[in-house]
Design brief:
This protein is an all-alpha fold and 167 residues long. It comes from Micromonospora fluostatini.
Amino acid sequence: MEKAILVTMITCIVIGLMLVLWLLLNPVEPPPTHRASTRVEPAMHERLHPAVLTAVAEQFASRIAADPRLAHYFGHFTSADIIRLRDHHRRLLAQLLGGPTTYTMADLAVVHRRLGVTRDAYWQAVGHFGAVIAGLRIPQDIAAQLLRAIYAMEGHVVTGPTPTVPR
């Protein structure tokens, strides 16, 4: 059992490092500030077609529900529950990109507290999320914004026990 925990933790660390490396290798160029412009850039959520956000939400929900390491969180879900989960993910993604505010971090904490999500499970899910946005070729600045926001949610989503690494 201790070996499985260690392997899971190493896997999560490797996935996190891969995502950080991806962000470092694909830097987001800041907008030029040397000249005044009257052009208003659309919010990030407006730059993505709604179908893209839907695809991200659907693929992410499918991947985490199918992962045997995460499946126990979704074992009691009905088909309707999975559809609602995908809709929640889509609205949350739009919000993370500057869209209408629907959720608060307190809302996320309450929902996830009931599930007892562990740190390992969280980072496993983050790895799936990173794979989805990379596979869909989301623009780099939008992908970076999403990953930063997802990383920042850890304290609101991880509510379960954190295993200790044997020494």
